[in-house]
Automatic annotation (TrEMBL):
The chain crosses the membrane at residues 12-36, 56-76, 88-107, 113-134, 141-162. One of its GO terms (cellular component) is membrane. PANTHER family: PERIPHERAL-TYPE BENZODIAZEPINE RECEPTOR, TRANSLOCATOR PROTEIN. It comes from the Bacteria. It is a multi-pass membrane protein. This is Tryptophan-rich sensory protein. Keywords: Membrane, Transmembrane, Transmembrane helix. It comes from Baekduia soli. The lineage of its organism: Bacteria, Bacillati, Actinomycetota, Thermoleophilia, Solirubrobacterales. One of its GO terms (biological process) is tetrapyrrole metabolic process. Belongs to the TspO/BZRP family. InterPro entries: TspO/MBR-related_sf, TspO_MBR. It is found in: Membrane.
Length: 166
């Protein structure tokens, strides 16, 4: 194990970087593979969506930025918190799994209701990530705020879609 510097930081190992980038990349990639064909499906095209839903072209760039922020946050936390941040990384993995689950439930399962319930669950670990990252790195915690706000927006959007299509 590498000794921390005077600020308590540890150099990031290639393994840590690979795990964080791999987890975020896998979530993004599987999510994109699950979403892309569904966007052309008859089911999705027939959904009544609220007028405040952003255009489809917005979602890819927004998620790219959010995933980059999530990965950066986790790497900052890892470099500042070292090995004692294990529970935070369990929470990180849980959050990514729930993030992906929403995509699969909504687009593959075609269930806005179930996706609405699931995204309410997702918001908890999303906020918890911010709270748990704060002691290790305020910047890491702040980088997660746009993600939490987007999940809150997506929650409202999911429930609005459900309400318009039940």
């Amino acid at each position: 194990m590498t000794a921390p510097d005077v600020a308590g930081r540890r150099p990031l190992t290639a393994r840590s970087v690979a795990l964080v980038l791999g987890a975020v990349g896998a979530t993004a990639g599987i999510g994109a593979v699950a979403t892309t064909p569904a966007l052309d499906s008859r089911w999705y095209r027939r959904l009544s969506t609220p007028p405040w839903q952003p255009p489809g072209a917005v979602f890819g760039p927004v998620w790219s930025v959010l995933y980059a922020l999530i990965a950066t946050s986790m790497l900052l936390t890892r470099s500042r918190g070292g090995e004692r941040e294990g529970p935070l990384f369990v929470l990180f993995g849980t959050n990514l799994a729930l993030n992906l689950a929403w995509t699969l439930i909504f687009f593959r399962g075609r269930s806005p209701l179930a996706a609405g319930v699931e995204i309410l669950v997702l918001e908890g670990p999303t906020v918890a990530l911010i709270v748990r990252a704060w002691p290790a790195s305020r910047l890491a915690a702040l980088l997660l705020v746009p993600y939490a706000l987007w999940v809150a927006f997506a929650t409202a959007l999911t429930w609005a879609i459900w309400a318009r299509n039940r």
